[in-house]
Specification:
about 15% strand; alpha+beta; 2 domains; two-stranded parallel ribbon; globular; about 240 residues
Length: about 240
């Protein structure tokens, strides 16, 4: 998959001017330098890892997209190269979604200074041998009342392989993620299952192919870096 950084300067003013402007923009991205230092990787290794992990699901992205990703990593103490957080296309609004995987949610909770533990309850009623609901309760050190969220199988059951092979685990994950979002106010990040549902819903409501939606959000005529060296050039490194 190719990664295109949308850059009008390169098309209108030539490579030298574009690189100069890109350098100025890069110096205003403290999140990039902070994440690079925290990773203990070389610039080339860090950028290469970004392309292979958190940016690998996008055909096209912008410098603000990269800044959103890195800022979220700093805010939630996640690794942009550790398969904990990703940018994925949002075919309805255009701007990529910040998606946190299960390992990322677990790390996010355990490293939050106000996290004081969580517990799960499940229904004694079964649906196809699976609990009808699972409830997650999360305790905060600075709150007197814990937050509890109950997710019902009939409402969230999916059709992906994970839901077919590990339905109880998926239902538990859904309860944990939704409870974490409410407890700590994490409305700007979503879980992979929610992203898949949005993607599937969009496909059902659209007559055209998915590729058409992707092209509407990210015009293919605006090409960008597809390798580590090209991305370093655009960032002014």
């Amino acid at each position: 998959m190719k990664h295109h950084l949308l850059n009008d300067d390169a098309r209108e003013h030539g490579h030298d001017d574009a690189q100069s402007q890109a350098h100025l923009r890069a110096t205003k991205l403290p999140s990039f330098r902070l994440c690079l230092e925290r990773s203990a990787m070389s610039e080339e290794g860090f950028i290469g890892a970004l392309l292979q992990t958190s940016l690998s699901r996008l055909d096209a992205w912008t410098l603000p997209d990269l800044e959103r990703l890195l800022a979220a990593c700093l805010r939630y103490n996640l690794s942009p190269t550790g398969r904990e957080i990703f940018l994925v296309p949002d075919h309805t609004a255009g701007a990529p979604l910040l998606v946190v995987g299960v390992d990322g949610w677990s790390r996010l909770l355990n490293e939050h200074k106000q996290f004081a533990g969580m517990r799960f309850r499940e229904s004694v009623e079964l649906v196809d041998g699976i609990p009808a609901w699972i409830e997650c309760t999360i305790h905060r050190r600075d709150r007197r009342v814990a937050t509890a969220v109950r997710e019902y199988l009939c409402e969230v059951r999916g059709t992906t392989t994970a839901w077919i092979t590990h339905p109880r685990r998926m239902l538990r994950h859904k309860a944990m993620v939704q409870c974490a979002r409410i407890t700590f106010g994490m409305g700007d990040i979503v879980d992979p299952d929610e992203t898949y549902r949005t993607f599937a819903s969009t496909n059902q409501q659209t007559d055209g192919p998915t590729q058409t939606l992707r092209q509407k959000s990210h015009p293919p005529a605006k090409r960008g870096p597809t390798s580590v060296n090209e991305l370093k050039s655009v960032l002014g490194l």
